[in-house]
Specification:
alpha+beta; about 45% strand; 2 helices; 6-stranded antiparallel β-sheet; SH3 type barrels
Length: about 80
Amino acid sequence: MHSQPLSKIPTGETVRLVSIDGNRKLVKRLLSLGITLGVEVEILHHRGQGVVVGRNGNRVALGKGIVEKLQAEKID
């Protein structure tokens, strides 16, 4: 499958996070939000250049700087 930044994935798609191009601080911050490698999230909507994702009934708003560092693959 082809991975792409979370910011490029259309609303309504469910994706699996395959890569985090950031430092330990970013990984730790995402972990505290329940977002780790291999996790599946739904793209709920784009908010400016950021993205709101949903997982297990929770919503998380991620800013432009973060979503550009998250690589994901669409789930068929």
